[in-house]
Amino acid sequence: MRILKVRKIGKSKQLSLGSLIPDGWEYVKIDEFSLNGDILVIKLRKVSKGENTS
Predict the structure, then answer these.
(1) Is the pTM higher than 0.70?
(2) pLDDT in tens, 10-50
(3) Which helix (H) or strand (E) element contains residue 44?
(4) Any idea of the CA torsion for 8, 12, 18, 22, to the nearest 10 degrees?
(5) If residue 35 lies in a helix (H) or strand (E), which one and from where to where?
(6) How far apart are CA 1 and CA 13, in angstroms?
(7) Where does residue 14 fall: left (phi above 0), alpha (psi -120 to 50 degrees), or beta otherwise?
(8) What are phi and psi of 38, to 5 degrees?
C-alpha cells in the first residue's frame, strides 16, 4: 500500500500518481470513478494524443 499526499492549490486538489503510472503512458482518460465513503476508485485508460477522449 502506498500513501500519497493530496495537495491543495487554491480551491483545487492535486494528487501525484507518478509512481503508479507505467512508463510510456503519456495521456490517460478517466473511464469511470466512484466514491464510497472513504474509498475513491478511479479507472484510467491509456490513450494516444490524437484519440477523442470525450
Answers:
(1) no
(2) 999 998 888 888 999 999 999 999 999 999 999 999 999 87
(3) strand 39-47
(4) 150
(5) strand 27-36
(6) 21
(7) beta
(8) -95, 10
